[in-house]
Specification:
The chain has 433 residues and is an alpha/beta fold. The chain contains 13 helices and 18 strands. Strand 1 and strand 2 form a beta hairpin. About 2% of the residues have low confidence. Its cofactor is pyridoxal 5'-phosphate.
Length: 433
């Protein structure tokens, strides 16, 4: 007879938390059951699934979400960084209404796309010229293909635990989003290097230097855990890209919010190309890729050798109008500095409590982008973090199940102070198990 080893107490507690969650949310359970009739797994976005079923949100206002069962949550994930404006910014709403009055879809050039392009080029040091797309994923695919066409090479350097969109992720097994073997990838010829490791990255790059056309890197790993790129590491990538005549691409889809010109402006490291997405569409689907003029001139339609780049919604009037007002009037230097300072205070406060109370968690990140990690052994860490997630839900706080925290302009200092108290209390509850 085989005797099963006893389960760690917090695994039993996790079962209890999930059962309690299911009991509290019968309307979401019913909505999910109906959704599974026509959506595989009941949804169309893997990152927001929750076991045993996801919450269904009825409405959002300010920094709050209300689910189908009437529970209200303070939103501390902000739609995975894209919802930086909160749920109901009046300036964006006004821009959208005005754009609607002028026509939902025009199918032609408008002055708003040139205006948004000028605002982005003025913000980011690397952007001489820019083109629009419909997501950060699309922007990164286009930046890679542009770089390979420009260099006439085939290899792309990427980094472990890097995420550049739904078909451009490089997680190791057991990492963010449950491991690399479950991810889909566009079949570029990748050279996967270790993040923040200059010696090993240099060894690998030197072996393939003649074939490398692009080096794609996040200045801070986003979905990979909010791990900041070391300044020396990022400067090394700038040097080696120049040395081997490869195109250095900064994926600033998330880190663009760290200043008016992203992390490249803060560090004075100028890539050859930059990709953007998420919040620069003012709440609509958006992506952008751009860089040096001699690279981007390949798309100049006036040339008989121009590279074609279509996209019905690349210059959608609503996106262009919302993005322009956001870049011009909301994403100001002062507003971003205040938001990022608040995020730094949050991270420092939580980490101080984790350390002083010897709690099995830590928080990493930069500015208003942060992530909680469970420091228990690997087999228990995922369960520990998930249990923390459920405990925060019970207290009325919404974060990503993987631990991501992203602040919005709608969140107040008082909201953050309450959240810090809830995180510490929840971590203490987990640690007692």
């Amino acid at each position: 007879m085989t005797i099963e080893p006893p389960r760690p107490a917090f695994l039993t507690a996790l079962d209890t938390a999930q059962s309690s969650y299911a009991t509290r949310n019968p309307s979401s359970a019913k909505a999910y059951e109906r959704a599974t009739d026509h959506l595989p797994g009941g949804g169309t976005r893997s990152s927001i699934f929750i076991h045993p079923f996801p919450l269904f949100i009825e409405k959002g206002e300010g920094c709050e979400l209300t689910d189908l069962d009437g529970h209200v949550y303070k939103d501390f994930v902000s739609d995975f960084t894209s919802g930086i404006y909160g749920k109901s910014n009046p300036l964006i709403r006004e821009a959208i209404v005005t754009a609607l009055d002028n026509g939902l879809q025009l199918g032609a050039h408008s002055t708003s796309e040139a205006h948004l392009a000028s605002l982005l080029c003025a913000r980011f040091p690397s952007l001489d010229l820019v083109r629009f797309a419909n997501s950060g994923t699309e922007a990164n695919i286009l930046a890679i293909t542009t770089s390979l066409r420009y260099t006439k090479r085939k290899n792309v350097v990427v980094f472990e635990d890097g995420y550049h969109g739904s078909v451009l992720s490089h997680f190791e097994l057991g990492g963010a989003n449950d491991g690399g073997e479950h991810d889909m990838k566009v079949p570029f010829d990748y050279l996967v290097c270790p993040y923040n490791n200059i010696l090993e990255t240099e060894r690998l790059i030197k072996q393939h230097a003649a074939e490398i056309g692009a080096i794609l890197v996040e200045p801070m790993l986003g979905a990979g855990g909010c791990i900041p790129g070391d300044v020396d590491f990022l400067r090394y990538l700038r040097r080696i890209a120049t040395e081997i005549d490869a195109v250095l691409i900064f994926d600033e889809v998330q880190t663009a919010r760290l200043s008016t010109g992203g992390r490249q402006k803060l560090l004075d490291i100028i890539p050859d190309m930059t990709t953007l997405g998420k919040f620069f569409g003012g709440g609509f689907a958006f992506g952008a890729f751009g860089g040096k003029g001699d690279i981007m001139q390949m798309f100049d339609a006036r040339s008989p050798h121009a590279v074609s780049h279509g996209g019905t919604f690349n210059n959608s009037p609503l996106t262009m109008a919302a993005g322009a007002v956001a870049a011009e009037k909301i994403l100001t230097e002062e507003a971003l500095a205040e938001l990022n300072a608040l995020g730094d205070w949050l991270r420092d406060s939580v980490n101080e409590a984790f350390n002083s109370k010897s709690l099995p968690f830590k928080m990493t990140g930069l500015g208003s982008l942060n992530q909680i990690h469970c420091t228990l052994p690997s087999k228990l860490a995922s369960a520990g973090l998930t249990l923390l997630f459920y405990k925060l839900l019970e207290k009325g706080y919404w974060i990503a199940q993987r631990g991501l925290i992203s602040l919005s302009f709608a969140i107040s200092r008082e909201d953050v102070e309450g959240f810090v108290e809830a995180v510490i209390a929840s971590a203490q509850e987990v640690a007692k198990l």
